[in-house]
Amino acid sequence: MAVDPHEAVLQELGAQDPGEPFVMLNLLRFVPDGRASYEEYSRRAAVFLRRYGGELLYAGDGDTPLVAEQGQAWDAVLLVRYPSREAFLRMVTDPGYKEITRLRSRALTEAVLQPTTPWTRRAT
């Protein structure tokens, strides 16, 4: 299962950068006893998040899904706002950040990282 983004996907993300803020949806599934490793990663990653202008908007535990196929429940959900895709890419390529990603990788069996863009307000 996928846990970390591949280089080609990161390059595509950068190529699509409109230079505007976006929110990254994080869906996480932990290995047994992986939460402690992820919490350590989160503590260390907070420094980089602040450095590159990111902001944790929400972090919470997954609960029983109301609408989902079997096996689609997630252990945790995070929403992280970044000032731009370029800022996100600078963060994930920072050598110091790259050193701590092993904590995240070993904590997870599966993850979804999905950039989101706000809906435009339409006149009614």
Automatic annotation (TrEMBL):
Domain DUF1330: 35-109
Protein name according to UniProt: DUF1330 domain-containing protein
Annotated source species: Streptomyces chilikensis
